[in-house]
Each structure stands twice: as C-alpha cells, then as structure tokens.
Amino acid sequence: MSVNIDHQKNSITPSSTTLDIDTTGSLVLPRGTTNQRYPSTEGAFRVNIQTSGVFYPEIYINSGWSEVVQVSETPSLGYFIKHDGTKWEATAITSDDVPEGTTNKYFTTATANTWFATKDTDELTEGTTNLYFTTVRARASVSGTGDISYDNSTGVISFNNTSNYVTKTEANGYYHPKGGTSGLDFAVKDLTVHGTSTVINSTIVTIADPVFSIGQNTVTQNKDRGIEFKYNDGTAKIGFFGQDFGTGDFSFYVDATNTGENYDGTIGAFNLEGTSVNRLIDVAASNAVTDDFLKFDGTYWRKATISLDDMTDVSAASPTVDQVLKYNGTAWAPGTDIEGVTEGDAIAFAIALGG
C-alpha cells in the first residue's frame, strides 16, 4: 500500500481505505487540556490532560467531545460499568446503586408502617374458613343445653338447675352447684379465685402448667415460701420444704411446726443415690479411679492418692534405700533398719552401748 503525505495539509492519504501501521511500538496521540482541543472535527481523537494525573482519551463525535470509557479492574460475570467519581470500573452493583422511585419504593420498616397506617381490614378480602370476628358470629357459635341455657341475641349464659342440684345462693347472686354424680367442666379463659381460705377436696389434682407460681412480691413479707404437706405416722403431723426466709436456704422439715407461716422442725433427710460429687461447687473430682481419695488443695476438693506425708503423725521426707519408719516420740520418721545386722555388728553395737 502506498502512502501520500501532504505536508501542506498535514494529512496522510493511504491508497486503500485502511491505514496499517506495521510496528511493535505505539501510536502516540496528541495531548492537551480542554482549551487546547483542535480541531473540532468529527472523528478527532486525542488525550485530555486537563486534570493532573487523571488522563483520558476523548473523541469528537456528533458535534461534541465525549470521553472514551476506560474500565479498570478485571470484569466478571454479572458485573456492570460504574463510575467511582474518578474513573470507570467493572464492579458488581446492589439495589443501593439504583435510586428509589416515587411510587415503586424500596421496602423499609418505616415505609411499611406508614403505608399500613392508612389501611384497615375492610381492604382485605375475607377468606372462606378464617372469618373475621363479629358479635353475631361469635354468639351463633355458642349453644347451651340441659342445665345451661344460652341467649344468642344477648350473649347471656344462664344456669337453670333443671337437674335439681342442691344449690346455695350467695349474696352476690352466684349459684354454686353441689352434689350429684355427673362431672361439671368449666371452660374459661382466665379464672381468679379470691378468698381467705380456698379448699379443694380432690383425690387427684392435675395441673397442665409446668411451673407453679406461689407467694407474691408486691409487698415486703417475712414468710417462708414452699409447700406444706400433711402426713400421719400414728400422729397427725405436717412437713415443709421450700425457702427458709430467715436463712434464705432451701429447707426440708418433718414433724414441723407452722408459726405465722415460718416453719421449724426436724431436718429431713435427702436420698442422694445417683448424685455425683462433681455437682458440688467446691469439688472437682472427675475421672476418679479406684482407691482415689478427695484432698483439699486450698480451693477445691480434688481426686488424689494418699502418701505417707499426708498422715499427720508421719514425717517421711527424704527417705533413703532400706530405711524403715521408726517412732521418735513425736512422729514416725525414716530410720535405719536392723534387718541384715551380723553377729559381729550386734556385738560391736552392744559394746558401744556398754553391754
């Protein structure tokens, strides 16, 4: 391909439609600031160096200069091109990058609360089985037979005593059915019984709630808290287990006395069969083996073996081979064994003693 260079027009005209620069180097573009753009001709290509250290290529197209997008970072599947204020980069985007509209708003608790505050159940379609509560529906679902009559127009339930149970009318007009052989079930949401003394004469009492709440803490009291039980070992007696108010300890009394709901009596025994000593806070004796003992280390009782030094009447420090324990008048201490003494040794020993 031939190339014609017109020095007067500052142009290169290749003989074909393609100009091929065959080299391993680079094509250096003209560079300059925004004010140095020239010429403003469609297709003009240059490097803008207006901002120090932040250069970008630009092209004059459609009657205006436009930055040629440069993408930093290595793109990955699902990435978008996003400008970070300095350059274009390939990055993942989140909903935080999309501005909220005027009608299709992002969900937030505040937005949801504001929206729901303008709504009521009239705007929700009623289902076929989960129906809205109405007084008429509630009353229609209740009925009464036998001794119980029910007026679904007023919602009043009445006890008619058509079975002629023995009743007692109290001053408040309540009926208390008594006697008879049939059971009587009460189904109530909440039941509060007030009275100075409430007695339930029942052989078996079943409570579904797994936790008993007894006593009250709204006022200062000095009474014990627990369970009093009655028993008879030939004589009618009571027992008690619970918190002793005076000591704050859990206490168990038999043959007890109740003085103003503070109990005293004989301390009852506990069957601790199957209870591990490791349950005690001052014992750390796990992995004990046969013939181990508990020994106090100043903080805990720990499993240990016993040596002669652990005996209060033995002082067995630094013994040597073949020594035996001899009583020195105060303690047992290491001493020389007489076993193996020869006749000559014995005679010499006797002479030494003046024998």
Walk me through this protein's architecture:
- This protein has a 4-stranded mixed β-sheet with strand order 3-4-5-6, with no helix packed on it.
- Among the domains are: 3-68, no CATH class; 140-206, no CATH class; 315-355, no CATH class.
- Residues 172-176 have low confidence and may be disordered.
- The protein contains 3 helices and 20 strands.
- 2% of the residues are buried.
- The chain has helices at 109-116, 135-140, 343-352, and strands at residues 3-6, 11-14, 31-32, 45-51, 54-60, 65-67, 71-72, 80-83, 88-91, 148-151, 156-159, 225-232, 236-243, 250-259, 262-267, 283-284, 293-296, 301-304, 323-327, 332-336.
- The chain is mostly beta strands and 355 residues long.
Low-confidence stretches: 172-176
SS class: mainly beta
- Arithmetic mean pLDDT: 80
Shape: flat
Number of H/I helices: 3
Share of residues in helices: under 10%
Compressed to H and E, one letter per element, the order equals EEEEEEEEEHHEEEEEEEEEEEH
Q: Find the count of extended strands (DSSP E, 2+ residues).
A: 20
Order of strands, main sheet, comes to 3-4-5-6
**Cα-atom radius of gyration:** 51 Å
Short description:
The chain has 355 residues and is mainly beta.
